[in-house]
Amino acid sequence: MPVGELLYKQADPGRVPSHLAIRALESCNATDACLNAIEGPYADGAFWALKYMHNSEAVDGLIQRLSTTQNTAVRQEAITTLIRLYHHEGKYTGGWWGTRPDLTGPYYDRQRWEQSDKIAKVLRTTIPELESESQSRIGAQLAKHKVEIEGLQQLVVDANKRAEMAPIKIAKADPNNPDLIANLKADITAYRANDFKGNPKKGEPLFARQNCAACHTTANGQVPKGPHLVDIGKRYKKHELIESILNPNAKIAQGFDTYAFITVEGKVISGFITSESAKEVNIRQTNGLPLILKKDDIEVRRKSEGSMMPKGLADNLTPELLADLIAYLQSLKSK
Questions:
Q1: CA distance linking residue 335 with residue 7, whole number of Å
Q2: CA-closest candidate to residue 334, choices 214, 263, 222, 234
Q3: Are 34 and 90 in contact (CB under 8 A)?
Q4: Are 26 and 7 in contact (CB under 8 A)?
Q5: Which domain holds residue 284?
Q6: pTM score, two decimals?
Q7: Are both 117 and 134 inside the same structural domain?
């Protein structure tokens, strides 16, 4: 594996042979070879390849292995592989490409196929027999792959609950405190914040307290929510960061335009799109909470002017505390 720079920033030639090997196994339809290897030293590669093999031999082989092995790790991986095989990709009709990732499994247009019912029947039998911790992990896989099977819905509900977030709450500013941003003119606030040398260690807890984490990530590997701030300190100067917080409409991050959706029932929902599949649009609402809209339920979809970031998020701070928050953002400089 490469060393030095962060992995996502450089080529990974060591990954190429394994990727080609998996694709070769798939192209050769080497189902039997993979099934024979899932309890040996090459189990990881075998399961990896089987997840691409939408055929009855792969499904029947995995089900047979569940009936004969007591190996916990093999059983867990076999169930996970069957969950992935529950859907297959729909027929490509064009227009799928976009800049927003779909993180819900490997399929853009998830479709059931001839083996889906058989897989569902086995999963309904095997999953309830697992210990609670294993059921939680499997529930996360069901939720990720959008697999809905009668009798297993609660596992998906529980998995989604663990990922739930609290809505953004803008803290009220004391109207009697003349030192708070809410009670100062914008130019005075900007001058004082820019002039004051902030402390990034004091700014880090402010990032959480002011609800910034509801829509922003600060480290590689975190599930994308909104504009990624991992290297914001290299991309923006101090005065630009101050302006972005005090006046969110001044500059909108590319790909995070606000959209207004009107449903067929007449409900109006605003937010930015985090991912999109053939049947659903995942959005982050103006209150910071995620929401999934079925495309069939959307009557109107229109880009809106202005930023989704609420104005006044820093109103309860002094300009000096804002400088601490800015100092923390400036410290985010990915190597």
A1: 11
A2: 234
A3: no
A4: no
A5: 259-303
A6: 0.60
A7: yes
